Amino acid sequence: EADIYQTPRYLVIGTGKKITLECSQTMGHDKMYWYQQDPGMELHLIHYSYGVNSTEKGDLSSESTVSRIRTEHFPLTLESARPSHTSQYLCASSDEVLTSSGANVLTFGAGSRLTVL
Amino acid sequence: DQQVKQNSPSLSVQEGRISILNCDYTNSMFDYFLWYKKYPAEGPTFLISISSIKDKNEDGRFTVFLNKSAKHLSLHIVPSQPGDSAVYFCAASAGNDMRFGAGTRLTVKP
Questions:
Q1: CB-closest option in A40, A42, A109 to B43
Q2: CB of B32 within 8 A of CB of B90?
Q3: Cβ distance A104 to A42 under 8 Å?
């Protein structure tokens, strides 16, 4: 059973439309992330949040914005979609529980695949 | 600036044989390395990790080896099973900074 949910899973939309990709987690994690991945390419961090009312931009420049009003909810918004925004968007969360080796593990949602025509 | 590289986009092995997936990194500040597995239409899931102070970590059929001097790590799966067919992502972290490779698609043939 998934603990982090992304909707919509697939979206085809026209240029200029406003879209919001939803991400919710039920684990109570403070840290949440948005990654963008193009086919055959690495995941790029575009936004992250370390808690309510905290949001930061990642290492990949993005025209999207995020908000974190509630711990469990981290939506991503594109005010005016363009074909260059076509990609897969992965939401993830983490807490301070570490693996046996000490690594901090991300839990990912199933992703939202966006196509802008 | 791609700090984590998986140079093999795909790998095909026979069931029961060993699968070896490779990963190279450039940033010597990385202190943890992780492997994630991704099935189609699902998000990546954590598989195994290793600290930079170790050179090997084993979990059942999965073993990760780290060669710090070469800035290279590998994931060994033995014996490989058809259910292991997936895309495997290598990741490296330094503090709150985590970088991912582009993934290697593993196909295990029955």
A1: A109
A2: no
A3: no
